Amino acid sequence: MSTALAPVEQLLYTPEEAATVLRLGRSTVYELMAAGELRFVKRGRSRRIKRSALEAFVDNLEPQPV
Q: In sequence order, which residues have a C-beta less than 8 Å from that of residue 42 and are 6 or more positions away?
């Protein structure tokens, strides 16, 4: 009988983790946050990005014309 727990999906991401997930640079993520294009929450000096904010950002990306 296994007592292993199912993996829990991550709800909040650091800017560095978000950069990895989005496959962007860390500086780019901070620029998107500063421009208001990527929503985040701030607690003290820490900034965290909700998974739903990452999904909304990706959903709103427009394909570039060829």
A: 48
d(CA 56, CA 61): 9
* Identity of the amino acid at 65: P
12 vs 63: CA distance, rounded Å = 27
The reported pTM is: 0.82
Residues 34-61, mean pLDDT to the nearest whole number: 97
| The two three-digit tokens of residue 39, written as one number | 């929503």
Residue 45: per-residue pLDDT:
94
What phi, psi does 54 have (nearest 5°)?
-65, -45
